[in-house]
C-alpha cells in the first residue's frame, strides 16, 4: 500500500484543497490529510476541532482518505504513517517558490520521502484560504469557494461584513 500525506493548516479547507486531495486519492492507495495543530506562521481563524470536522465532512465517502492531526515535523508525520510521499497543491508561481524550499529541507531530513505536486484545477486555481477569509470578512459570498459547512460558519463569524474596502498590505 502506497501512502501519501497531504499536510496543511486548512484554515479553512477550500474547494481547491478538496480538489487536490481527491485527485491524490486517485493516485495513491491511501491519503492521510494532516492538519497542523498549531501553525507557527499564523494564528488560525478556526479551532483545530472545526478544521478537522470541516475536512471529515467534505471528504466523507472517500474510502482511502483519512484525517489526522500533527504537531511534529512534516517528515516525522510522514514516517509515522509510513508515507512514501508528501502531496502539495500548486496554484501559482509563488506557491512553487515556497514549496521548492520546503521540499529541499524535507529531502535533507527524509530523503526516502518524495514530494509530489498536484497542479490546481483551473476552476479553483485562484482560491486560497486567506482570500476566502478576506472575502467573507467583508460580507462577500464564498459559497462557490469552500464546502457548505465552511461557508455557513464564515457567515456566522462575519454576519454583516466589515465596512469599507480591503487594504493592500503595507498601506
Note down, in words, how this protein is organized:
- Helix content is 38%, strand content 18%.
- The protein is of the alpha/beta class and 171 residues long.
- A 5-stranded parallel β-sheet has the order 3-2-1-4-5, with helices on both faces.
- It is globular.
- The protein starts with a strand and ends in a 14-residue tail after the last helix.
What's the pLDDT, averaged over the residues? 92
Major sheet details: 5 strands, parallel
Uncertain segments = none
What is the strand tally? 5
Question: Helix count?
Answer: 6
Based on secondary structure, the structural category is: alpha/beta
Specify Rg, calculated over alpha carbons: 16 Å
Order of helices and strands: EHEHEHEHEHH
Strand content: 15-25%
Strand order of the largest sheet: 3-2-1-4-5
**First-to-last CA distance:** 51 Å
Percentage of residues assigned to helices = 25-40%
Query: What general form does the structure show?
Result: globular
Structure characteristics:
alpha/beta, 171 residues
Describe the secondary structure blueprint for this structure.
Blueprint: E1 3-8, H1 15-25, E2 30-36, H2 48-58, E3 65-70, H3 74-80, E4 85-90, H4 93-109, E5 114-119, H5 129-137, H6 148-157
Parallel strand pairs: 1-2, 1-4, 2-3, 4-5
Short description:
By secondary structure, the protein is an alpha/beta fold. The chain contains 6 helices and 5 strands; from the N terminus they run βαβαβαβαβαα. A 5-stranded parallel sheet has the order 3-2-1-4-5, with helices on both faces.
